[in-house]
Amino acid sequence: MYKNIIVPVALDHGHDPAEAIGIAKALLADGGKITLLSVIEPIPGYIATYMPEGQLEKNRQETLENLQSDAGGDESIDTRVIMGHPGSAIVDHANSNNVDLIVIASHKPGLQDFFLGSTAARVVRYSKCAVHVLR
Q1: Beta carbons within 8 Å of 10's beta carbon, 6+ residues apart
Q2: Which residue of 5, 17, 96, 134 pairs with 101 in a disulfide if CB–CB is 3.0 to 4.6 A?
Q3: Distance between CA atoms of 87 and 99, rounded to whole angstroms?
């Protein structure tokens, strides 16, 4: 059983995280915690100058609200939104927060990542903890 599980959720890919959350709950030790994690990629400076003031914070807040909705009020599930490139940000977050399992969905891979999506492949390749991949 695992005490600290993260479930990365890519809200822009239309995934329903219910299956990943169910697996995380089944593998969660008593007293453990699950964190739904979403990563927002940084906006390049040349684009940010054209965005309305406060847009990035608005996007972050909307993402957090979507994650909280996915958590369904379950007190064993925390929600967090971080900035960075999804693959490396998930691994960095796991390493710096003593995560012992990542439950990640893989979606419609391209030719370069035939068996896994690019984010899932990066997480599997570089994570120091166990990774459960949903197909």
Answers
A1: 38, 39, 86, 105, 107, 119
A2: 5
A3: 15
